[in-house]
Input
Amino acid sequence: MENIMNKELDELISYIKNTSSYKNCISIKKKMNSNEEICSLVESIKKLQKKYIKSNYDNNIKKELDILEEKLNNIPIYVEYNNNLEEVNKMIDLVKDELNDYFTNLLTIKIDD
Output
């Protein structure tokens, strides 16, 4: 049974990796990693997020953070990456939910027996 499950999981993973959304994510991420503007914005946002939390949620830092996030979200390649990533995450969530349901039902049946 374990071998069958491993095979099925491998097939699901392979299916997801072969989707255009996943392939686009990988391709776009490589492009983004070589884009200085995106890298700089992401790094600045990470630093500001930490600063924002340490500041006990200072509104001035939040405003600055919002401005940088808006800049990032207005870069077309970043938007395209997020759209594809969202699709991939939906597929992963669906698989996760199905597996959770499967094991819940399996364990419930065994307990009730």
